[in-house]
Amino acid sequence: MIRLTNLADYAVVVMTAAAREPGVRLSAARVADVTGIPAPTVAKLMGTLARGGLLTASRGVAGGFSLALRPAAISVAAIVEAVDGPIALTNCQAGETSNCAIEGHCGVRGHWGPINRAVRDALAAVTLADLLQPAVQTAGPVPAAVCATEKVEA
């Protein structure tokens, strides 16, 4: 199973909460109340997201955090990368040293780049503006052939 880290998941929730209140400076405590994520985690994430250019931070009595860009200009990929770094499904593609037993003779290693780009592109195609819309419920996974050939009406 491929999963986001908890922090990346929470960062998407935090950013969605901020997007629901455009132009409002939000405190970490307020976002924690709205999302149910512990306040220390929210504070850490908001700082990280601000350093990543996705939130702006203001100090003082009227301070807090707000979106740095329009919701339509912030992708899920940008949020995940601000928290976790570049999207890579394997350690050998993330530039990390690994204990992979087949690293020297892996027949697939060169193919992970295009796979990583496809995953990143899929996450980049979803924006905060999309996440503010009601979720579309499906009966189950849609075969790729159907997705590629059928037009979805809005």
Descriptive notes:
The chain is mainly alpha-helical and about 150 residues long. Helix content is about 45%, strand content about 5%. The protein has seven helices and two strands, in the order H-H-H-E-E-H-H-H-H. A two-stranded antiparallel sheet has the order 1-2. Strand 1 and strand 2 form a beta hairpin. Helix 1 crosses helix 4. The longest helix has 14 residues, at about 5-20. The radius of gyration is 18 Å and the shape is globular.
What attributes characterize this protein structure?
5% strand, 44% helix, mainly alpha, 154 residues, two-stranded antiparallel sheet
Quick description:
The chain is mainly alpha-helical. It contains seven helices and two strands, in the order H-H-H-E-E-H-H-H-H.
Which secondary structure elements does this structure contain, and how are they paired or packed?
Layout: H1 6-19, H2 28-35, H3 39-51, E1 55-58, E2 64-67, H4 76-84, H5 112-124, H6 128-131, H7 144-149
Antiparallel strand pairs: 1-2
Helix pairs in contact: 1-2, 1-3, 1-4, 2-3
Between the first and last Cα atoms, what is the distance in angstroms?
31 Å
Instruction: Characterize the largest beta sheet: strand count, sense, and whether it forms a barrel.
Output: 2 strands, antiparallel
- Percentage of helical residues? 40-55%
Lateral strand order in the biggest sheet:
1-2
Q: Runs with pLDDT <50, length 5+?
A: 145-154
Q: Based on CA inertia axes, which overall geometry fits?
A: globular
- Structural class determined from secondary elements: mainly alpha
Radius of gyration: 18 Å
Helix and strand succession?
A: HHHEEHHHH
The helix count comes to 7
**How big a fraction of the residues is strand?**
5-15%
The count of strands amounts to 2
Calculate the mean pLDDT score and round it: 84
